[in-house]
Amino acid sequence: ENIGAFKEVAEQFQQLMMMYSCAIREVRTKLEVLNDEFQVQRSHNPISYIKYRVKKPGSILEKLKRRGYPVTLQSVEENLHDVAGIRVICSYVQDIYMVADMLTSQNDITLLEVKDYIANPKPNGYRSLHLVVQIPVFFSDGCKLLKVEVQIRTIAMDFWASLEHQLKYKTEGDVPDSIAAELKDCSDVIANTDQRMQNIYNTLKKDRPEKEN
Ligand code: 0O2
To answer: Which of 47, 133, 180, 189 has the most CB atoms around it within 10 Å of its CB?
Structure first.
């Protein structure tokens, strides 16, 4: 009897993960459409590339427990908003806000939450724009509203976040103060470089408005 109940929950879990993966596909398509349109109309690719993942069962369980939420499928849907995750890597800082605006102004998308870690970086130096959106996905028996977390950052911000994540993992989160300060300093240098690259782009665009790059 226990085995039967386990099998049923496992199947329901698998189905929910399939739905999240479809929600990712919907949002990815929207982003790719916007990028293609920009490429044709303005010869500019705001998006360099897109990464995505469905959160692993172990990480889902760990997060539910850590936050003190019930370990049920309903709780996953209600309490976790990063089961479906998309990371959008942009060329320039202004592209981040442009992509975010174009995505969230589409009328089938509901914006549930914004965390602007670019305007307000985390104390460790982490920068990114985080959005939680809700999107309808149509299945055989009807439409389901699903949450997707979209992290939008520049190539430079992604470079920093990826290496910082690896270092944190390597040291099990126990980074010495001097290293933490060094990482924060690298983040500030990177932010400054992002700003200078944006200025270069804007200056060139102003001089040659007919051929945007
Ligand atoms: P993974 O493997 O990327 O999924 P929430 O998830 O919103 O309930 P929180 O912490 O308030 O909880 O979310 P927040 O601040 O929006 O950040 C969550 C995600 O942002 C993380 O996911 C990371 O992907 C990224 N992130 C946030 N802070 C940092 C940071 O200091 N360094 C790096 N490298 N990434 C960061 P997970 O769940 O940690 O991991």
So the answer is: 133
